[in-house]
Structure formats: C-alpha cells, structure tokens
Here is the input.
Amino acid sequence: MRVNLYATFRDVAGVKHLELDGATVGEVLEKLLTLHPEMRGELFEAPGVLSERVSVFVNGRDVRYLQGLATPVGPEDVLDLFPPVAGGALGFSGPDRAGVWRAELGGVSPWLLAHYLRRWGAVEADDGWRVDGAWVRFRALPPRVVGGLRTSRLVVEVGGAEARRWAERISVGAMRGGG
Here is the structure.
C-alpha cells in the first residue's frame, strides 16, 4: 500500500511516500518503524496506543473513527501520516552575558531536533552538538498538556560566534517541522 508522509515524517524518511504491506494499519506502521524507529515516540504513546497528536488516515478517513490500528488495509489503499502540529517558537532570547541564546520550543521532540542538526552537518559531542561556528545543547521538559493533547517541549541553548544564525535556523526548523 502507499504510505504518504508529511512534514517531519517526510524529513526523517527522506521521501514523500513509501510502499509498505500489511493487513492492518498497525502492521503497516510497524513496518514503517523497522525502517525509521525514531518515529516511534511520535506515532505511539505506549505500545499499541496511537498518539493523540498524530493524524492517521486510510483513504481519507481518520482511523480513530474506523477500527484504529486494527483497521484492515489492502494493496490499493492509501495511508496518510501527519505528525504533531503544535506550534514552534521564534522566541530565542539573548544573547546573555556569556553570549548564549535560549528558547523553549513547543512541539519539537529531542529526536526531531537531533535529526535536523545531523542534516545540517552538526556533530554530537559529550556536551551537546557542534555546528559551524556554534554549539547547541537541548533538554526535554515535561510535555504541556491541554485536555487530551500532549505537546513536547525542549529548552535549547545556542552559543558561539554564529549563535544567532543557528538560533534562527533552529527556530525556522521548529516552526516548519515541530509545529
């Protein structure tokens, strides 16, 4: 079956769609996760429990109104996967006296920011990430919960000679992909 990926899922996979097989939505998603295990935390809240933040459609119909992960699928069906959309932030403040820019980004998970940093040429180090002319550190905060919606949050710090440029780039990535 055709699996269409949108926004950050497309960025992680590096393709707009995949051809995967399975008898149910759950089986198809598990096959996707064998290719891209970093998506697990965005797709599922717990084993077998689809995240409320993700939209999964079979032939244009939300699987939550069908049979959930047990929804039967066939080779001619189309599965659309939309990642969480919760709003990034341009709210970096800084620089402080040490030259560090800081922000709390909503809707961005640690794996997603790490994915973007790798794609931009960053190298992971013991104390964070090294990018051209700067360093980046981040840590997860407890998610923001509004009703049944859980939104991931990160505190991000950027320092070095090119800190402002990298803070802006991270902000745009957060708005585009993380929210």
